[in-house]
Design a protein that fits this description.
By secondary structure, the chain is an alpha/beta fold. The strands form three sheets. It has a six-stranded parallel beta sheet, with helices on both faces. α6 links the parallel β4 and β5. The termini are far apart.
Length: 444
């Protein structure tokens, strides 16, 4: 990996950081290139329904579907769960139990109180009725995404959780681990469709696919573009970009561990970002050497992806002190932030922008991906400046509750009426004035 010495005035560092921050806009450029194609797919599904799904499934996934074959039979899901190797099934259930335990703490309750005039004020928390979860398929196998999306929805109390995932090219069966995870997580129905057409079906509904209130889950650029275009018809979780990791190091620890952590994100995508900020020149050099060594041990596919990622968006930066490292990190707002230092809790209070923070040398980003408990669906592309990981709160809605008393009308009515006058809304004022006059006569 390339090393930048930021202890001196370094134009190269400024350029790299500008380039890294520019990644926030890389998705919008990609969206523009395919937006018209995705709009066409969405429009076809909106107007042709299942016929469009069948057509696009044949074109993109290579298998002949009929409307009745779009849903995965419950017997197939049950069979996938029952036939898993026992040890693997236990791993999935262990992850699910830890994810459940964490997300249960995020539950929100309805509440009301009475103010000094006896008026009732409060908040009603209601789960969404139906949500759709997109799980990448084809060559990808992501049972972790099933657990991370479905479990918070189930804990929130969502009535129906719909999952869509494409079959492998040519029509092979959906991965048994993905189906088993769906059963463990509480998914109600699974449909074997993918791409922008699956997002459109969830947003608008077809004869076979039910319309949902919200769509969550990762996908390729076509899926992300479709989610962006249907937002407003339904809610979405976020537009996820390429993976990111940033490590802050104080010169202590195992260089090979840090190198492996950097590669864990670089292998995801050529556009993934892997950055190490360290106060030690010796550690910078050691990690760089370890990255090269570990890179050679990856499969050809992963090596090719990781190598390109590290050239484009991978850097080891030598900083003057940890305060400077924190400043740079907060500016980047990484998806994953590892505090690979002796006293991570000391730095924790200084971190303002990060999707997830991993404390200490024993906490690689991978623990968060699978079974630490917190959600692995995290804000990317600098959006950690204003957004949060997926959670139970994403699957509920909050409704305000207001019940004024006669005393409340008497004490606050004039102020309300005056506010209406300030905004020039006469009928607003009249509605309050009528109540201030008393109960009056009632008809009927």
């Amino acid at each position: 990996m390339k090393i930048i010495d930021a202890t001196k005035k370094n134009i190269e560092l400024d350029g790299f950081l500008d380039n890294t921050l520019a990644m926030r806009d890389r998705a919008s450029t990609a969206f523009n290139g395919i937006e018209q194609d995705v709009k066409k797919i969405i429009d076809d599904v909106l107007h042709k329904g299942d016929d469009a799904l069948i057509e696009y499934t044949k074109r993109f996934d290579g298998w002949e579907a009929i409307a009745e074959s779009l849903e995965v039979p419950k017997a197939e899901i049950d069979a996938a769960y029952k036939t898993l190797p026992k040890a693997d099934g236990e791993v999935l259930k262990l992850a699910a139990s830890r994810i459940k335990e964490f997300h249960k703490k995020q539950r929100q309750r309805s509440w009301t109180f009475k103010d000094e005039y006896g008026s009732i004020l409060g908040q009603k928390v209601t789960p969404l009725e139906r949500v759709g979860i997109y799980v990448p398929g084809g060559k990808a196998v992501y049972p972790s995404s099933v657990l991370m999306n479905a479990i918070p929805a189930a804990i929130a109390g969502v009535d129906e959780i719909i999952m869509v995932t494409p079959r492998p090219k040519g029509g092979g069966a959906i991965n048994e681990y993905v189906l088993a995870a769906a059963k463990i997580a509480g998914v109600h129905r699974v449909f074997q469709i993918g791409g922008a057409q699956a997002i459109a079906a969830l947003a608008y509904g077809t004869k076979t696919i039910p319309k949902v209130d919200k769509i969550t889950g990762p996908g390729n650029i076509y899926v992300a573009t479709a989610k962006r275009l249907v937002y407003g018809v339904v809610d979405i979780d976020m537009i996820a970009g390429p993976s990111e990791i940033l490590i802050i190091n104080d010169g202590t620890g195992n260089a090979s561990w840090m190198a492996a952590d950097l590669l864990s994100q670089a292998e995801h995508d050529e556009l993934a970002s892997s950055i190490l900020l360290t106060t030690s020149r010796e550690m910078a050099q050691a990690v760089s050497e370890q990255v090269d060594e570990l890179l050679d041990g990856l499969s050809n596919q992963r090596k090719t992806i990781a190598k390109k990622s590290l050239v484009l968006y991978g850097r080891i930066i030598i900083v003057k002190n940890l305060e400077e490292a924190v400043h740079i990190s907060n500016k980047i707002a990484p998806e994953h932030l590892e505090l690979f230092v002796k006293k991570p809790e000391t730095l924790l209070k200084l971190i303002k922008n990060a999707g997830a923070i991993f404390l200490g040398a024993n906490t690689p980003e991978a623990v968060g991906d699978y079974l630490a408990g917190p959600n692995h669906t995290l804000p990317t592309g600098g959006t950690a400046r204003f957004s949060s990981p997926l959670g139970v709160e994403d699957f509920i809605k909050r409704t305000s509750v207001i019940g004024f008393s006669e005393k409340g009308v008497k004490q606050l009515g004039k102020a309300i009426q005056r506010f209406a006058e300030l905004e020039g809304l006469e009928a607003h004022g009249l509605s309050m004035a009528a109540r201030m006059k008393g109960k009056g006569k009632r008809k009927g």
